[in-house]
């Protein structure tokens, strides 16, 4: 006997049909497992009578063949749950976006009173992050349905593990930041292929500098791809005091925020505005005007600046004298030696020392599609940041094929690129 792999749920708006019951019967005879009936009268012209007609009609098929009837409406009161059952519904839709946690829990509890223990409660929509899954679990759900978000994800295994709560940075999830993006088309290419962070530069002297109108276009394209209309909110804790009690305190703080950044950028890319020694007022103006999700401080600004910014900040640390190796004190490096986007090669072992000290970092410097897989294996950074390595010589003009290859080689590194890791820890393939 051939095993049925899935059930089919069909929905229709009764007001658009001459006979709701007759249409439902066609669906049922075609093998539908669930029939969803709109009962909201004001906006969708549905009615409870339509649902009752559907329920009575499909009941004639007998228990073995009868599909379940689902009430689709704005449910917010326990009376509506009892009402749905009285009019023949086997199940109903709860819209999480319009309910408080207490309201959702109450409605699920009412439903649970009449549900056999063998029937599992699943959340069928609105799951994008581990936090979403936990919210439903707290309300009594036994599982969650994840659909289109996984289809957009370029590392399905990592995303599934993260939703289950067993994924972490050490399991190989490496963030990708494509920086120096100067047009919306390139931003969309990066987003479609799995970039977590899209960097646009507001430093006037940079050849990759963009104006506010262009930046706004980039933000809108990224938001549309991520199916959102506003910036992503990341709740951050206050940075430890200027004299923290131990390195462990700093490490714990950075790791906590790294996890939040990873979770926030898992479903939709975040747009990062890059600034260098510019006023807080100007940075906040740009962030609010174009809709930045994050700010990257690329000059010699102090950490205290972050407290006055309207969005969270990434602080660049420029390392003096470490382009060819040597030890590094991860507690004391603040000096600026490079302005970025130069293609200068960074010693990957230095980034590895940060990882060993429990300080997650985004590694930049001389990365290209050809060497990034080896760099990630050597340094195991939180993420990689690339700009000139995606260009063919003209600053700001990205080669879309290189964008695709770079991201793919981070997410799914080719085995051939990992063969000589021990022999080559800082490959110079810059343009």
Automatic annotation (TrEMBL):
Residues 251-408 form the N-(5'phosphoribosyl) anthranilate isomerase (PRAI) domain. It catalyses: 1-(2-carboxyphenylamino)-1-deoxy-D-ribulose 5-phosphate + H(+) = (1S,2R)-1-C-(indol-3-yl)glycerol 3-phosphate + CO2 + H2O; N-(5-phospho-beta-D-ribosyl)anthranilate = 1-(2-carboxyphenylamino)-1-deoxy-D-ribulose 5-phosphate. The keyword Heme does not apply. It holds the Pfam family PRAI. Residues 20-109, 116-163 form the Indole-3-glycerol phosphate synthase domain. Gene3D superfamilies: Aldolase class I. Pathway: Amino-acid biosynthesis; L-tryptophan biosynthesis; L-tryptophan from chorismate: step 3/5; Amino-acid biosynthesis; L-tryptophan biosynthesis; L-tryptophan from chorismate: step 4/5. InterPro entries: Aldolase_TIM, Indole-3-glycerol_P_synth_dom, PRAI_dom, RibuloseP-bd_barrel, TrpF_fam. One of its GO terms (molecular function) is phosphoribosylanthranilate isomerase activity. Belongs to the TrpF family. HAMAP family: PRAI. PANTHER family: N-(5'-PHOSPHORIBOSYL)ANTHRANILATE ISOMERASE. This is Uncharacterized protein.
